[in-house]
Amino acid sequence: MKFGGTSVGDAACMRRSATIVSNASREFSIVVVVSAMSGVTNRLIDAAHHAKRGDREAGKALANTLRKQHFEALAALVLDESARFSVQQRIEEILSEGARLYEGTALLRELTPRTLDAISSLGERLCAPVFSAALSQMGVAGLPIEALELIVTDSFHGGAEPQVEPTRQRAHSRIDPLLKAGHIPVITGFIGATADGILTTLGRGGSDYSATILGAALDADEIIIWTDVDGVLTADPRLVSEARTIAEISYREAAELAYFGARVLHPKTLRPVLPAGIPVWIRNSFAPEKLGTKITAQGHSIGGGVKALTAIRDVALISVGGPGIVGVPDVVGRTFSTTAQLRAEVLLISQSSSQNDICFIVAKAHSQVTIEALRHEFAQDLAHQVVDHITMDPNIAIVAVVGENMRGTPGVAGRTFHCLGQQGVNIIAIAQGSSETNISFVVSDDSVKAALLATHREFGLGRSNGS
Ligand code: ASP
Ligand code: MG
């Protein structure tokens, strides 16, 4: 069971989450993964950037706030004085480690990815002992464990990749005996360590990934990701009021949704569970009576094939083109080797058949550097009008219609674009991968809501569709 930041956001939330664990522990062996209390990671990273500019106070001020926040939660959850005292000591140790990291950063005015990882891991490391003590107070034997001991990764700081075999060995040898002895390990999400023991992080929002890495390594029967929404929804309920929770969805569909911006899951979350087909649940820790969404290998097929919609908004459309590029063979290659060098993730590509124009989408955060790099790459061609424009449109969004059973179902694209046309939504670009599990299209940002409403209605996603 993984509990996200809001599910451990304060004492009341932690109590609710710990109760879920303690109830389930009557029937099952449970391993817990926790995120940092909500907002903590952002604040740790902010203070790190202050320290980098030479500010020696930001880290100290934050340590005081974090001490207070964790002590308060602890005081509300743990009545036993000696138990509380030992957790307080642990908190102090972690905070003083943090103080040294901030001091070093301020002194050198340098923040390496490795130091930033060490700093941003503090939130999970502070949270686990508190959550674990809350469990023990309820009479189930919590035991905090830092994932450095368990998850072995490469050394790509800020987005490290787990190594499956060593992780599996360590996880089993450390966790199996604890479970046998009736303990409930409470493991820090988000972090791992290289084979030499240097702390790494799995990337922002990476605790979901920690949960599936560990679930797969330990051959779990199920993984439950407890969050603050009811599950995977048919669309963003802030934009589509008829949106509803999907009962069952396939790995592939969930991955498409995560990739296209539905914020329920870290995009890499499902990778570790694919080989063994372990079901992953998304459930609401604030409403544990609801079943949530079950993510499985097969999903659960439904008639029309469309399962859900999603939109990504902080993106920009870049286009490279002009009549001169017709037949110039390397424009596509040079365009995308430029984005690759920048590590700018390309979310959608569309090319007209005459090669008059190649357009693609990147995150807004990458758009400026991408366009500058392209202008540099194509400087000669621009000068000789082989390429006549490299332009960017930031006021756009991608909408994706997702469903595994769309594959081989004729008419989905027709219905999608017909209903958009009827609503007067103009389509700027279209892409459908040959996997046919999603059709994505680009619209102006101010027509996202209309596009979602129209397609949601067209495919009857608001009705209970038996999925
Ligand atoms: N605390 C980390 C973050 O905020 C990891 C997580 O919450 O999943 O990115
Ligand atoms: Mg989080």
**Mean pLDDT over all positions:** 93
Net shape: globular
**Spans of 5+ residues with little confidence (pLDDT < 50)?**
none
Strand order of the largest sheet: 3-5-2-1-8-10-11-9
Number of helices: 14
Distance between the amino and carboxyl termini = 24 Å
Structural class: alpha/beta
Radius of gyration: 24 Å
| Helix content range | 40-55%
Main sheet: strands, sense, barrel: 8 strands, mixed
Overview of this protein structure:
By secondary structure, the chain is of the alpha/beta class. It has 14 helices and 17 strands. The strands form 3 sheets. The chain has an 8-stranded mixed sheet, sandwiched between helices. α3 packs antiparallel against α4 and α3 runs parallel beside α6. It is globular, with a radius of gyration of 24 Å. The protein starts with a strand and ends in a 9-residue tail after the last helix. 48% of the residues are buried. The model has no long low-confidence stretch (mean pLDDT 93). Magnesium ion (MG) binds next to loops.
